[in-house]
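User: Show me an example of a complex going from sequences to structure tokens.

Assistant: Sure. Here are the input components:
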Amino acid sequence: MNLDSARQAFAAEVAELLQSMEDALLALEQDPADPEALNAVFRAMHTIKGTAGVFGYEPIVAFTHAVEGLMEQVRAGEIKLTAELIAALLECRDHTDRLVSACLAADSPEAELAPDLVGAGAGLLARLAQGRPSSASSPPVQSKHLPIGRDLWMISLRFTCDAFRHGIDPLSFLRYLASLGELVHVTVRLDPEAGCTPGFDPETCYLQFGIGFRGDVDKPRLASVFEFADQDCEIRILEPDSAHAKYLELLDTLPAEQVGCIGELLVRIGALTQAELERALAIQSAEGGQRRIGEILVDQGSIKPAVVEQAARVQAAARNRVQEEARFIRVDAQRLGHLIDLIGELVTSSAAIRVMAKRAGIEALDEVVDGVDYLVSEIRDQALQLRMVPIGDTFSRFKRVVRDAAQELGKQIELVINGAETELDKTVVEKMVDPLTHLIRNAIDHGIEPPHVRIAQGKPSQGTIALTAYHDSGHIVIEIADDGAGLNTAKIRAKAEALGLVRPDETLAREEILNLIFVPGLSTKEQATNLSGRGVGMDVVKRNIEALRGTIELASEPGQGTRFTIALPLTLAIIDGFMVGAGDGQYVIPLAQVVECVELQPEQGSGRHGHYVNLRGEVMPFIRLIELFGPGRSLSSQRRESLVVVRFGHHKIALVVDALYGELQAVIKPLGKVFEQLKGIAGATILGTGEIALILDVAELAAIATEQPLMTRGVGAAV
Amino acid sequence: MNAAGKDTLSDRLILAGELTIYTVSETFKRVQDYLNRPPPYILDLSGITELDGAGLQLLLWLRDMICARGDSLRLAGQSPTVSEIFALLQLGSSFGDSGGCA
């Protein structure tokens, strides 16, 4: 690995860690005591510090070290995590991000950082220091005053009957123990089972001790005190809570390769002695291995349940990590793109082979071609799958956007995420970040009202923005819904009229007015804020989405909220298509959007002025492809026509075609600039015969079909 | 406190010298005999020179037996050896003047 790729790996690792730190901090805002989240923040800083140290990026090391130190105190319960502190930590996260970028951009690790960056770091550290209790500078109040039990080792000793006969004097152990520290409290009793019976034998040992011990020792050291009596005494040593915290930390920092069996893990960090482990293992094998070792250890009183749980988690995490390291490889996105391009060519070539095979009329060849076709489609699916990523990673970054913006505006907003596991082509995901950010900022800024307004309207003071993703007929649908004020149609219309987009006497449906917000230059907020821009946004959002062959729809009810629905094709490259013919042209419809094909009865299609067809009681608009794309050719009424019902979201329309050719794999080739204005066409594909077929854009067709009365018929005339 | 004035030397169980695993069987007999007489029960340990776990256990047993009857055991004297061990085991109060039934 050369240094550059190492740096890239570092940058990627930092990005992941900072993301998890951010998630954890946001979780801590809800529950400041969440131990997993605390650990995640600590680990992020700790790991970044370590790696930055390898590269010699001193400023990163210094800064993350300070934050790590603070987190350590937070975890130990010495510092309370306040909202201010979390806010400061979030900024520390951002600062770390900037530091890393600056260090990576610099020519050498020793390069001087920009003074403002240095200043910002110092300022943040000063803020963190404010969060510390004042005693942090003076030595902390010593543990003498801590509540009993918190810092005490609890030791229980039960001697066996023969202890005296074996020459064991229990008192000598206690004397020795007292020399190691302080016996804070001691109880001594005779085994209640045997002690008070007349059959008392003075030479049999019934002694039992309970000891609260305070001293600077670890568990193995304590166990060694009683080592000599191991055969004659049942010893239980429970660590104090403070040691407990130390174990949890040790568990956290243990390198993955050292994580073995849970028992060994606990012995390694000193939470368990070898003897205790052996005893538990003996019990386990005696019981026939029915119980887990951790359970036995807890029962046996050797260890606290929380430590076992944490150890189990560390063990599982280490296993996962090892597995993941083996399971995942990072691949250059360009290589993947190239692979997919090649597969596109392969699809086209294999279609050409099919055509040639048909012409040759060799039956055996057909079979081979079928096999190849199947493999090609499998390869295509697998290759496209490689680029699929869950959209949740993108969604979760909006938590921060919502949090920051809501605080700035003094609003209370909760972001609800649904369908985070929905997968989408990575290139599409990346291009969706900006539009989504814009829509969410809009919802925060214009949608959700301030708390007092909401309460006055009888809504909960906390607004909700719901971000939802799901799959629907070959598309991924992303919804951004808020329960805010909704769009003010009157204002939009007034603005549109002022801009000359709409004539004052024009009647517009509510939906049409709402859609005006996608027109360039229209912003409904009189006062532009620095959050959601200056009204240059929505048209750009729409353009970005359309560039991905997606669509955006909008619904809004006054007082109820606004919902944007974005539908995007799953992938940009290759689709399963259904080919139809109309006139001389061949057209491909994305297969996922085809609902059914039926024969068109002559009387159904005859109504040339009403563009609606009644299909088994369901009325839907229809489009004659030949009318839309080939007006030059006269209609031959004797031809049998078919109806292809296609679906887009909740729209259903019918396409009237002359011929049904069947399914094929279509590699989408973009049309050149000349055809950019062409409505209803998403691209073109090359057929096996070398001919070109146009790929229909069902969403646009649906729009054309529903707007038909208003539409100017010259749109498709270019073809 | 009924004890201080009334008790006579014969009420006392005086244990002295070595009270260890080596002597505990012998002492046990004396302790059993002592338990067969009526209260008060007063234990004098001022002559103890050595005390080990077995000896301590016998003392605890004696205390427990008396307590189980609803009587109490009073400690009339303890040697430095005994004091040291009682202090170590924080037994002072349960062997104290009040009889120390737990």
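The lines above are the inputs; the final block is the predicted structure for all two components together. Chain A touches chain B through 26 residues (CB under 8 Å).
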